[in-house]
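Researcher: Next entry in the queue.
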Amino acid sequence: MTKFWAAACRAVLPQRPFGKNKAIISTMKKDEYKINYEHYSSLGDLPAADGELVAAAKDARATAYAPSTGFRVGAAARLASGRIVTSSNQESVVGPVGICAESGLLYNLQANHADDPVEALAIASMPDTAECYPCGMCRQILADTEQRQAGRPIRVIMTGRDSATVVRSSLDLLPFVFRM
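Model: Structure for this entry, 180 residues:
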């Protein structure tokens, strides 16, 4: 078995000097990624427009259908026109068939309000003991939406019972976004 793996490695990996005291030359470059965000320890400290959006997201939780998990999520988007649109998560008896509040909202907006860009999106959950952050799929959909808007940033407000974390662009949530 060992000879098999050694042969397979030699066939796939480039030849490098291995052994005692032999250095491996690497072209790896170290870098770091930093994001700017705002944290509010009280929702009352949010700007008025963001507070209004958070209230709409919290209200949207009432329309969630979450019989399996009991985790109810509401999302609210403020469009460039000033209009606020909401959505909530919808579970299915077939787990992966459900849809998140954020993705349901963004797909609806893209289909029905494509000419009215999203300026900000708030997310609220119940239970709300911790701030609610978008899942990986929703982060990609947020990034896609931002790209479709010619790069107009979407401010994302992620809330808990009485706190919020805010990023100025959805791309801050997914630094290595998938692009074709």
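Model: The first strand starts at residue 37 and ends at 40.
Researcher: Noted, moving on.
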